[in-house]
Each structure stands twice: as C-alpha cells, then as structure tokens.
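Below is how a single chain appears once it has passed through the pipeline. First comes the sequence as given, then the structure the pipeline wrote out for it. We keep one example in the README because the format questions we get most often are answered faster by looking than by reading.
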Amino acid sequence: MLLSRTYSVSIGREWQALYEAIWRPEIFPLWASGLTESHLRQEGDHWLADGADGPVTIRFTPHNAYGVMDHVVDIGGGKEIHVPMRVIRNGEGAEVMLTLFRQPEMTDEIFAQDSKWITRDLRRLKEYATR
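Resulting structure:
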C-alpha cells in the first residue's frame, strides 16, 4: 500500500453546479498546474498534455451524477498514477477533495513539494470556481 494524503478545499457553491462547471478535462489547465501547464488535446478516449519530461497521456472519469473526477496520468514507461478526486456536498456549498499517493520512487522532499503543489492548485480552483 502507498502512503496517501487527501487535500480539500471548501467552495461556497452548490456541489452539483460546481461539478458541472469543472468536470470537463479542458477546464483542468485553468487551475491544475500540477497536471499540465499547457492546453490538453483530446485524442480518442484520452487526453494529451506536454509534461516536463515529454508528452503525458491522461484518462478522465466520464461525466457522472456522483461528483467523481478521478483521472489516471500515464507518465510513460508503463507507469500510471491514479488521482482520485471528488466534489461532494458540504451543507449549502461543496468540498473538492483530491488524494495524493506517494509513489515508490518519491523522496520525502518530492512528496512534500507535490503536497504544496496540490494545495496551491486547489486554491486556484476555488478562485476559478467563485469568479
């Protein structure tokens, strides 16, 4: 089993409306700098992004009634990273949760950097979603 940490951000928006506003893969580059800093390009049932070490393939969970926004990032060499993500009801608003799994080759420093990156991206998501 991998060590994991779940991060969340509260957003003052009805959860289903928030999910509808952010679930589409083409929205991710507007807030998820950890995923990609370029535009995503759809190719069949997956999306392509320009990663730091070359092209990255991403598969997203299809639109659904449950607020699930999981995605799988294929970083090449047969290595895939599963990123669970959810939008859930939190009273009159919503909670967006994302789980980071510490990959076997990750040092403490890289895991801490990724944690900070996720926190920053979730803040960007909140800014985007409340404009």
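The beta strands are 4-11, 41-43, 46-51, 54-60, 71-76, 79-83, 85-90, 93-101.

See the next section for the split statistics.
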